[in-house]
């Protein structure tokens, strides 16, 4: 089962603290963990804000295969961010804390990385909340709930608007087997992208369409 | 794997505090499991009358449960091993 984006972001925060060899998971670790999950190509796009993780010195790190057993604990400041996010989620009538609630919780931060971002981009906490109120995460929540195997066939409209497909959806889109899609990805015939911090693959619509070529009858 | 309960006395606790603690406990359990200490947060019960929270964990030892709660920064007063009893088993 795929981990939910919030869990992935929080784990990314723990990994960052470990990489820093810090005994504490700080608010900055959490913010960077959130950014790493929502970034594409190390770019975080929230409304008019474009945050370059490379520029921040925080490009996505690949921790796979390395187990760091260093014990890290959440700092009290980070605990406060979690509680604020839970409060925001409740006000938003959400039964769960989503990525957006954690991100909004940082609107009230006036120190650390968030303070640097506010200064660099000239934004206030209100502008941060405003940008997030219209924010749609790229290809994460948008696709996961309905992309589970056994969710049934997608409507034509749903596929019509889709830009990114999971291997299962791509197979359904082209009416071929998922293993065929995975084979195309393995052999490089079909380009695929990896979601930041996880194993899930996404395929772009144009790359799927590029697989199709005109049929040439043998006898003309 | 044994089952343990972490008992917390948290006067004035809010649902937000419980939710935040849950998120942290889940992430620390996953992290410790990846490190080779398989800990799983099973469920928690809040008793409003006594302002106590009982959180159940599956873990190899009480030390592992203690470590998880320290990492998650969730205060606790006691940790005990528990024997599970379900209706199906009696």
Chart the SSEs and their pairings.
The complex is a heterodimer of chains A (220) and B (90).
Chain A: H1 5-19, E1 24-25, H2 27-38, E2 43-46, E3 49-52, E4 73-74, H3 76-91, H4 99-105, H5 112-121, H6 125-133, H7 156-161, E5 164-165, H8 167-174, H9 178-186, E6 193-194, E7 201-204, H10 205-209
Parallel strand pairs in A: 1-4
Antiparallel strand pairs in A: 2-3, 5-7, 6-7
Chain B: E1 2-9, H1 15-34, E2 40-47, E3 52-59, H2 62-71, E4 78-82
Antiparallel strand pairs in B: 1-3, 1-4, 2-3
Low-confidence stretches of chain A: 140-152
Major sheet: arrangement of strands of chain B: 2-3-1-4
Shape of chain A: elongated
> Cα distance, first to last residue of chain A?
50 Å
Instruction: Record the strand order, biggest sheet of chain A.
Output: 5-7-6
Distance, first to last CA of chain B: 21 Å
- The CATH architecture of chain B can be named as 2-Layer Sandwich
The name of the CATH topology of the largest domain in chain A is Double Clp-N motif
Q: Would you summarize the structure shown here?
A:
Chain A is mainly alpha-helical. Helices cover 44% and strands 9% of the residues of chain A.
Write up this protein:
The complex is a heterodimer of chains A (220) and B (90). By secondary structure, chain A is mainly alpha-helical. Chain A has 2 domains: 5-133, Clp, N-terminal domain (Double Clp-N motif, Orthogonal Bundle); 143-220, Orthogonal Bundle (Multidrug-efflux Transporter Regulator, Chain: A, Domain 2). Chain A is built from 10 helices and 7 strands. Chain B is an alpha+beta fold and 90 residues long. Chain B has a single domain, classed as Alpha-Beta Plaits (2-Layer Sandwich), CATH 3.30.70.3090. Chain B contains 2 helices and 4 strands, in the order E-H-E-E-H-E. Chain B has helices spanning 15-34, 62-71; strands at 2-9, 40-47, 52-59, 78-82. The A-B interface holds A 3, 6-7, 10-11, 14, 67-69, 71-76, 78-79, 82-87, 89-90, 97 and B 14-17, 19-21, 23-24, 26-28, 30-31, 34-36, 67, 70-73.
